[in-house]
Amino acid sequence: MRLFTTEEKKIILTLTVLLLIGVLAKIIKEKVFLNSSETLKLIAVSDEIKGIYSDPDSVVSNSDSVSTLINLNTADEVELVNLPGVGPSLAKKIITKRDELDGFKSIEDLLNVSGIGEKKMENLRSKVTI
Fold it and tell me: What pLDDT was estimated at residue 60?
């Protein structure tokens, strides 16, 4: 006496494979795309930067916007990522430290952020304000 016919076994196998693919897709989505809104922000920043530097004329015409100072006490993560040497992780650390200090009192307070040393501070000093 057979428990399942050949056709039923094929259907069960197909459903099992589809279930495993779905579980794998969910795991990949959670690991690769941790926060889709953060991913969209980074894509927007990437497109903005690409737009500035893809057209040589726009680099000259946008030189004022590139040199605009970033206010450390009001900047969001996307704005901070535009600073030289600041990626998403360091931007989050800057915001966390800003919240801990109830706002930066001076630009030198950036030295209290893990990942910012004297060298990086020199690159940032002329690009930020309080």
Answer: 45
What confidence score (pLDDT) does residue 113 get?
92
Is residue 104 within 8 A of residue 110, CB to CB? The reply is yes
Torsions phi, psi of 106, nearest 5?
Answer: -150, 165
Query: pLDDT tens, 102-126?
Result: 999 998 999 999 999 999 998 888 8
The long-range contacts involving 90-94, CB below 8 angstroms and separated by at least 24 positions, are 90/115, 90/116
Tokens representing 21? 């693919």
Instruction: Return the H-helix or E-strand segment holding 128.
Output: strand 128-129
What CATH superfamily classification does 36-129 receive? Answer: Photosystem II 12 kDa extrinsic protein (1.10.150.320)
